[in-house]
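Here comes my example:
=====
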Amino acid sequence: MDPSNSIVYEVDSPAYSPYTFFQAVGQDGPIGTGADYSNPGCPIQSIQYGYAAPVSVAGYSCLKNAEVVTDCNSVIREEIFSYLSPGVGVVRIEDYVSDTANGNKLYQDYSQTLTNKVLH
């Protein structure tokens, strides 16, 4: 990741346009929104948040972004936390999903942490 870059894009699938995966911001708050209307009766909404204060993850100084996905009843269905380090790139990703059988409590479904930044 180029330290002078303020935005990194990710393409969810070929059917969707690229959306902001990470954006460096000077203050905490929302940086983007999105919606999935594949089920018109209950569209899925997402809000992406950026956090200004760096956090240490696996020995790297990272900026944190979060994406909160809710259903049409404002129930959180997924939260994705991304930690990126300027000059390094993605250091950690955590994905929490809703357990509908357990009162919609979130559980960690996936995580991945960078272990080595040496290119081969």
